[in-house]
Amino acid sequence: MAALSSVYNFNSSKPVWRENSYPIFKRFNNSFRFMKFKLSCRNKGERFATNVLVLPRYIAQIIIIASQVFGRALSRALREELSATKYASKPGSSSAKATNEAISNLRHGMTLEEARQILNVSEKLDQAEIEKRYNHLFSMNDKAKGGSFYLQSKVVRAKERLEAEIKNRGLKNARKQANSDGSEIN
Hints:
One of its GO terms (biological process) is protein import into mitochondrial matrix. The chain is mainly α. The protein has helices at 44-89, 94-108, 112-119, 127-140, 149-181; strands at residues 4-8, 15-19, 23-28, 31-36. Helix 3 (112-119) packs across helix 5 (149-181). The protein is elongated.
């Protein structure tokens, strides 16, 4: 079956239906085959009139389809963002934990892993061990002994980061105990 389009005939006020010259895909035996139809026109003026009359319709269709696609994509993105926001706001979600870690890293200028490597301490974070390693590295990098101020400041930042982590863990443990006892700690 051929695709038909309305062609304006200058000799009469009625449109003449003819096959258009636009490529289409025709379904034949459960497969699509490419078919191209030629426009049969009486003269060049009629061909020009056909192209001029068909063009605004196709432009309007393109605009409508593009706006529908954009609207669907926008609504899907908004829905996903809302669900991600709801998930991130839950206190036990990994996203909230990652956000808290990122804030702590920015505040102290280094990650917990980097601070542990600088002071060479274990994951247990023993306050006495941290203090011992800090004093040793700080005195070794003293400027009077030919050390580096940059390395001293790295050691200081590492100690601050680890102490903040110890304090944070202590608050979490206190909150857990308070919740199990029924009292609240802020």
